[in-house]
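Deviation from plan, reported transparently: adenosine monophosphate complex.
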Amino acid sequence: MADADCPFCKIVAGDVPAKKVYEDDAVVAFEDMNPQAPTHVLVVPKQHLRDLPAVAADPRAVAGYLAGIRATAESLGLTEFRTVFNTGAGVGQSVWHVHAHVLAGRPMGWPPG
Ligand code: AMP
Ligand code: ZN
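Because the crystal trials were delayed, the predicted structure below was used instead.
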C-alpha cells in the first residue's frame, strides 16, 4: 500500500512532519510547503496511488478520495475553492503520489497557466 521512497507516504505515516489540516479513514490533507494562495492544501489518499488515472482505476478509492476532498474543504470553511490535479511531468506533476491542490482566498484567473 505504501511506497518507502514516496514523500507523501511518509507524511501519511507521520514519518515526515507536515501541517495537517484534516484526516479521515481515506485521506490526509496538509498545507503545501510552497503556497500559491492564502489557502493551499494538498489532499492525498492514504493509499499510495501515483496519479489521477490510478485513482480512477480503483473504484473503492474514488469514493473515499472524493469525499475526503469535499470534507477537507468543508472543514476549512471553504465555499469557493479551486481543485487542481497535475497528471504528468509535462503539466507540472513533481510528486508521484496523487494529490489534489485545494486553493482559495484570492481571485483566480482562467484559463490557468
Ligand atoms: P505537483 O507539482 O502538482 O506534483 O505538486 C507538488 C506539490 O507538493 C508542490 O506544490 C510542493 O510545494 C508540494 N510539496 C512537496 N513536498 C512537500 C512537503 N513535504 N510538504 C508539503 N508540501 C510539499
Ligand atoms: Zn505515496
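The mean pLDDT is 97. We consider this an acceptable substitute for the interim report.
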